[in-house]
C-alpha cells in the first residue's frame, strides 16, 4: 500500500461561514466517493483558502463529519498571486491506497474547474 495525494478545489460565492463549511464538506465527500477511501485510510488533509476567506476555518467542516475527528488536518492561506481565482478552497488528502497514481481521481468543483481544465471531474 502506498500513500497517494488526492487533490481538489472548489469556490464559494461569499465569505460566510456556512458557505465555506458547505463547500468544503461537499468537496471532501466527492473526493472520498470518487476514490473509494475511508477516514481511516487518510494520513492527513492539508487545506488552503484564499486570503479573502476569513469567516471560518474550512477544517471545521471536516472535523464535524462522523469518523473524521482523528484525521490530522491543517489549514493555511493560499499564496496571494495577483489575478488568481478568488474565494477558493483547496484540499490535498494524503491517502493510503492500493490505487496507482493514474487511478486517483482529483475533484475540481464550481469555478475551481478552471484551475485544472486538463482533469475531468466526474
UniProtKB/TrEMBL annotation:
EC number: 5.4.99.5
SUPFAM superfamilies per UniProt: YjgF-like (SSF55298)
One Pfam match: CM_1
Protein name: chorismate mutase
Reactions it catalyzes: chorismate = prephenate
Lineage: superkingdom: Bacteria
Residues given in the record as prephenate binding sites: 7, 90, 108
Amino acid at each position: 500500500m502506498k500513500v497517494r495525494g488526492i487533490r481538489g478545489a472548489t469556490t464559494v460565492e461569499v465569505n460566510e461561514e456556512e458557505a465555506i463549511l458547505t463547500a468544503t464538506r461537499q468537496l471532501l465527500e466527492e473526493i472520498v466517493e470518487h476514490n473509494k477511501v475511508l477516514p481511516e485510510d487518510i494520513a492527513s488533509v492539508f487545506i488552503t483558502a484564499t486570503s479573502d476567506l476569513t469567516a471560518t476555518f474550512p477544517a471545521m467542516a471536516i472535523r464535524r463529519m462522523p469518523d473524521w475527528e482523528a484525521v490530522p488536518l491543517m489549514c493555511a492561506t493560499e499564496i496571494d498571486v495577483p489575478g488568481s481565482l478568488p474565494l477558493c478552497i483547496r484540499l490535498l488528502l494524503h491517502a493510503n491506497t492500493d490505487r496507482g497514481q493514474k487511478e486517483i481521481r482529483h475533484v475540481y468543483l464550481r469555478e475551481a474547474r478552471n484551475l485544472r481544465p486538463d482533469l475531468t471531474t466526474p
